[in-house]
């Protein structure tokens, strides 16, 4: 390795970084399309918000009602516009200004008659509206409970013309079937046309009364109806709870199950303490949302007042009462509906936008894996460290720019989910999310080998995260019955942790839009659930990155990722099988192969020797048996030494083990036993250092479709530590040597190259930087004769200071390029030598060919027998015959004389005498070796 300095970590990282930038530049329109998608979704959100503002927020129904006043001549023209409660319907009233909110009657929530459960015998009460309602009482003291139960309900209803109207009504137990509205400024129980109900122990005719009262500026006329109230004692709170719950289970119609108005647990109430638990109905009509329970409290004060008065009357007499005149809301300004629909649906859209980066990253990683680009980069010296650092940083920079563009554009067009929350906490959240996303892409890429499959799965993850987040996760998040610990478990799924953070941003943006409160700030971090989201993302990021790196390192070394578990259960190898294999190997060795083995043994005693670039010592590869098949021995004890400046050619039939040998030498698979030294470095221990001085031309072209030939060579040249003018000069020379320099071919994308041009580029890549060792797998496949000759000249010129191992099926290529040849059959070298020696050793025959008419075939056979008694017929068809004639039995002049003599006896159409070709040698050795192996 003298005169050859390997590239440093930063040099290799710089090479990959420049390649990625070039690749990014060549795919600029893909990047534009990627950025347009979040812009489009943001614009769509704004469009939805504008439409919602027009049709809902700014609708006349969602603001205080107004009326045009004609004050002059009655011509119908609007001289003055007046707004207020008197002009508002039920929906509009909640938006009106209320500087002095009106007092509200304190009413109980009473189930409507048609919804009360009764038995069949009393079913007619639904038609008459006379079904009773129930008040349940329980406690520790039965006698006290019975007394208080009698004091809960009054037996009369009176309304007089007293100025203190609400004080007058406070003596009565009133209720309504109208559910409380979403604001306490407006109570449908008073403003609607429905009657008010007086709950009495018995309803004595006449049961219907009416009265009028004024709540400025409106006068209300209300009808009062009597409804029977049953005050029932229950033994304990469990019975009360079960009876209340029967309403939701739609109990047996044979039972009398009256819907409950209220229930009281007196607990340990006595003379010295008053301790009561009250059940009240806040889930009427199935409204379970937490934020809607607040408005139900307007129905609670009357329940508290009932039991309080009953307790006072028990101690102080029937004339003692704690009156509840009314309930009243706080003053408010006029308002209008301000629903930020973009923030409401924003988490779903933004989840899609951010997770959209995942398939882009995953497809890029799987594409390099599918096209084997990662492997070829590693073979040319790009280590795992530079690859991980630059690739991760590359995706992180792209993702960060993507997120910044999203935040800037979303804020610029007015999305409040961006504008109303602190930008620093948003950026940190998004930054953590994209880091987790990149790590997850690295981990998931180890599972897939096809881009199409990975793409389908990735986009299912994208849309599934948004849809499941909006329809399932948010529903469970807002529900009170779902355990909080399971929410934490669900957030371990990265899509849900992302959605949870966006949901918190959405909630704070909606709150600020409604009441002007602060958006999400760092001071809200600990109690907004963002702290648990951050912790989950950081921990998952750390663990995912470690798992991805471990699996990548183990997989790239050819090991099973679960190897550390399998070692415990590993079975010892069978000694009998090993002895059998070694015995056969020794028995099959030829003299030249044995001499090569002895040479290797001598070289192994001097491991520091640099005279031979490649030394393979008893290299073996056994693939484990699968599906009941026995183990396959692909390479059986290969010993080989290749000095610098030599091109060694490996010939052999398909399945002989050549590819397994090349894979071991290039680090794709580990040898089962034996070892090899490349520039005195062990391939089992120092493969990363071996890569720095190695070039590879694989059987299939591994190229980036959008990079040009020049850009490929610049990248690989930098990996070989070429810089500045030396780099550009080497690139120019490489392009010229493989005939890719003229006509602007060098600056065209490799995807537009023909098969032959790609092959020439692959050869140029393997030779750039003058590597000390080069492996070429059928380098001239698919080339025309002229291009093949030009390529051979480039390879022959490059081998002066390089050891080349070349596999080929072209005998012409082997003779032209190779200094030595080895014929490889059934995992063994059968012979080694230069082409002339091999032809002389295995080709000791001439091939005689003659074509005549069919009736003279016997004459040809007699002619050959006369010339050489030991000649063998090797071919015969339609008058054409071929014979092998041993060289030691005949002279060429004798063959010519015999043919001339034969021409006088019968007509000869054609004849020829040829020496043995390398192809004949290959066929002969392969057939002989295969026959011996079958026999063995």
Automatic annotation (TrEMBL):
The keyword Ion transport does not apply. It is a multi-pass membrane protein. SMART domains: AAA. It is found in: Membrane. Its main location: membrane. Keywords: ATP-binding, Membrane, Nucleotide-binding, Transmembrane, Transmembrane helix. SUPFAM superfamilies: P-loop containing nucleoside triphosphate hydrolases. The chain crosses the membrane at residues 34-52, 344-366, 387-413, 425-444, 456-477, 533-551. It comes from the Eukaryota. Residues 614-851 form the ABC transporter domain. CDD domains: ABC_subfamily_A. Belongs to the ABC transporter superfamily. ABCA family. CPR flippase (TC 3.A.1.211) subfamily. This is ABC transporter A family member 4-like isoform X1. The gene is LOC104790982.
């Amino acid at each position: 390795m003298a005169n050859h300095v390997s590239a440093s970590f930063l040099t290799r990282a710089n090479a990959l970084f420049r390649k990625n930038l070039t690749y990014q530049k060549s795919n600029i329109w893909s990047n534009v399309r990627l950025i347009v998608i979040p812009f489009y979704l943001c614009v769509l959100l704004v469009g939805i918000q504008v439409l919602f503002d027009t049709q809902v927020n700014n609708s006349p129904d969602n603001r205080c009602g107004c009326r045009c006043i004609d004050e002059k001549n009655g011509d119908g023209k609007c001289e003055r516009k007046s707004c207020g409660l008197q002009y508002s319907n039920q929906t509009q009233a909640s938006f009106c200004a209320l500087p002095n909110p009106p007092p509200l009657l304190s009413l109980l929530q009473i189930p409507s008659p048609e919804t009360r459960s009764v038995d069949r015998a009393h079913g007619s009460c639904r038609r008459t509206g006379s079904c009773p309602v129930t008040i349940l009482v329980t406690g520790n003291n039965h006698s006290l409970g019975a007394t208080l139960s009698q004091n809960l309900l009054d037996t009369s209803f009176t309304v007089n013309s007293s100025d203190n109207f609400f004080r007058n009504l406070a003596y009565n137990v009133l209720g309504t079937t109208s559910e409380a509205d979403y604001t306490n400024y407006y109570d449908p129980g008073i403003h609607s046309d429905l009657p008010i109900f007086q709950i009495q122990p018995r309803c004595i005719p006449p049961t219907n009364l009416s009265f009028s009262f004024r709540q400025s500026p409106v006068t209300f006329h209300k009808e009062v109806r009597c409804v029977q109230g049953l005050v029932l004692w229950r033994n304990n709170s469990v019975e009360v709870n079960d009876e209340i719950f029967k309403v939701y289970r739609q109990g047996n119609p044979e039972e009398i199950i009256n819907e409950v108005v209220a229930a009281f647990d007196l607990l340990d109430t006595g003379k010295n303490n008053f301790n009561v638990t009250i059940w009240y109905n806040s889930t009427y009509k199935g409204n379970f949302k937490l934020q809607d329970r607040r408005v139900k409290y307007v129905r609670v004060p009357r329940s508290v007042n009932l039991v309080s008065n009953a307790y006072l009357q028990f101690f102080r007499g029937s004339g003692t009462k704690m009156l509840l005149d009314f309930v009243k809301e706080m003053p408010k300004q006029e308002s209008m509906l301000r629903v930020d629909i973009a923030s409401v649906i924003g988490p779903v859209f933004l989840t899609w936008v951010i997770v959209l980066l995942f398939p882009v990253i995953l497809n890029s990683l799987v594409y390099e894996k599918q096209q084997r680009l990662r492997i070829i980069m590693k073979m040319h010296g790009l280590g795992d460290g530079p690859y991980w650092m630059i690739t991760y940083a590359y995706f992180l920079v792209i993702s960060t720019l993507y997120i910044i563009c999203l935040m800037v554009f979303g804020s610029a067009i007015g999305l409040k989910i961006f504008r109303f929350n602190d930008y620093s906490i948003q950026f940190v959240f998004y930054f953590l999310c994209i880091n987790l996303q990149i790590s997850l892409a690295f981990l998931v890429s180890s599972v897939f080998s096809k881009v199409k499959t990975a793409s389908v799965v990735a986009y299912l993850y994208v849309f599934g995260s948004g849809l499941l987040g909006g329809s399932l996760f948010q529903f469970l998040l807002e529900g009170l019955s779902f355990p909080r610990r399971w929410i934490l478990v669900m957030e371990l799924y990265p899509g849900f942790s992302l959605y949870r953070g966006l949901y918190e941003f959405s909630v704070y943006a909606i709150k600020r839009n409604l009441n002007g409160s602060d958006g999400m700030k760092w001071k809200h971090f600990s109690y907004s659930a963002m702290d648990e989201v951050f912790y989950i993302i950081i921990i998952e990021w750390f663990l995912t990155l470690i798992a991805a790196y471990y699996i990548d390192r183990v997989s790239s070394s050819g090991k099973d990722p679960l190897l550390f578990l399998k070692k415990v259960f590993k079975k010892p190898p069978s000694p009998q099988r090993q002895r059998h294999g070694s015995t056969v190997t020794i028995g099959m060795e030829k003299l030249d192969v044995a001499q090569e083995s002895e040479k290797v043994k001598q070289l192994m005693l001097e491991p520091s020797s640099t005279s031979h670039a490649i030394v393979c010592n008893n290299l073996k590869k056994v693939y484990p048996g699968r599906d009941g098949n026995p183990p396959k021995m692909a390479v059986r004890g290969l010993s080989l030494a290749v000095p610098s400046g030599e091109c060694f050619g490996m010939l052999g039939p398909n399945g002989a083990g050549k590819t397994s040998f090349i894979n071991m030498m290039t680090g794709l698979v580990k040898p089962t036993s034996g070892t090899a030294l490349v520039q005195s470095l062990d391939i089992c221990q120092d493969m990363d250092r071996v890569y720095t001085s190695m070039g590879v031309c694989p059987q299939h072209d591994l190229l980036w479709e959008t990079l040009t030939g020049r850009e490929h060579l610049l990248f690989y040249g930098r990996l070989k530590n070429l810089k500045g003018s030396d780099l550009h000069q080497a690139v120019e020379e490489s392009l010229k040597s493989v005939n890719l320099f003229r006509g602007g071919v060098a600056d065209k994308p490799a995807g537009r190259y023909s098969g032959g041009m790609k092959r020439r580029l692959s050869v140029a890549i393997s030779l750039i930087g003058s590597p000390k060792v080069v492996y070429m797998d059928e380098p001239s496949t698919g080339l025309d004769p002229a291009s093949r000759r030009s390529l051979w000249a480039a390879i022959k010129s490059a081998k002066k200071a390089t050891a080349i191992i070349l596999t080929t099926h072209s005998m012409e290529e082997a003779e032209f390029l190779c200094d030595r040849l080895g014929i490889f059959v059934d995992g063994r070298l059968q012979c080694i030598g230069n082409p002339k020696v091999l032809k002389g050793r295995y080709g000791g025959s001439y091939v005689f060919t003659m074509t005549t008419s069919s009736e003279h075939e016997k004459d040809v056979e007699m002619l050959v027998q006369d010339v050489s008694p030991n000649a063998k017929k090797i071919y015969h068809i339609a008058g054409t015959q071929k014979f092998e004639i041993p060289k030691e039995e005949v002279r060429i002049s004798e063959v010519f004389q015999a043919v001339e003599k034969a021409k006088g006896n019968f007509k000869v159409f054609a004849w020829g005498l040829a020496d043995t070709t390398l192809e004949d040698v290959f066929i002969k050795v392969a057939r002989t070796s295969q026959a011996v192996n079958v026999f063995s």
